[in-house]
Amino acid sequence: MISRLVAAVLCVAMPFAALAVEEPDDYRMDDFRAPVPTTLNGGTVVGPEAAHDLWTSGTVAFVDVLPQAPKPAGLPDGTIWRTKKRQSIPGAVWLPNVGYGALADSYHQYFRNGLATVTGGDLTHPLLFFCLEDCWMSWNAAKRALEYGYVTVYWLPEGTDGWALWDYPLEEVLPQPEPQAQ
Predict the structure, then answer these.
(1) Residue 112 placed within a domain
(2) Beta strand 86-88 with 171-173: parallel, antiparallel or unpaired?
(3) What is the pTM of this model?
(4) What is the per-residue pLDDT across 73-88, written as a single tens digit (0 to 9) for each?
(5) What are phi and psi of 159, to 5 degrees?
(6) Can you tell me the distance from the alpha carbon of 110 to that of 177, in angstroms, rounded to the nearest whole number?
(7) Fewest beta carbons less than 10 Å away: which of 21, 51, 69, 86?
(8) Which CATH number is 42's domain given?
């Protein structure tokens, strides 16, 4: 009887163990909507409840890095272009497109400027990065902030999906203006 119980537990647990994702040494370069690791070397991984506690403390800058599609160049006159609205954690700054594995120099500067604005230029000011659930953009952005020298970096892998699941508030945010194409 016990061996059947152990076998049943292993059969249920095995698929979940196969889903474990190892933290890579470098940035994720593609397939950004995929299972993410449970770790961030140098940072602290938090769930929605801990993130909410940090949010209510008012001492942590929340940074949303969900990408945003740019308006296509060369649209015919009169074409209506509507950007997708973003529901995010109240008070978060939205810095889209900084979570890709490789960034143009202009986006590195955009990201650095955005972080300096929300931290007052203080590399010790705590930052929390998020996107959506299973989104490597936030992992990449948190890793990049650590490389920029920020010392207290939190990462919320569940993003706004996990935040909303706990019925925490969301509000519409607008992205910070991005660098102009050169």
Answers:
(1) yes
(2) antiparallel
(3) 0.85
(4) 888 888 887 788 899 9
(5) 55, -155
(6) 9
(7) 69
(8) 3.40.250.10
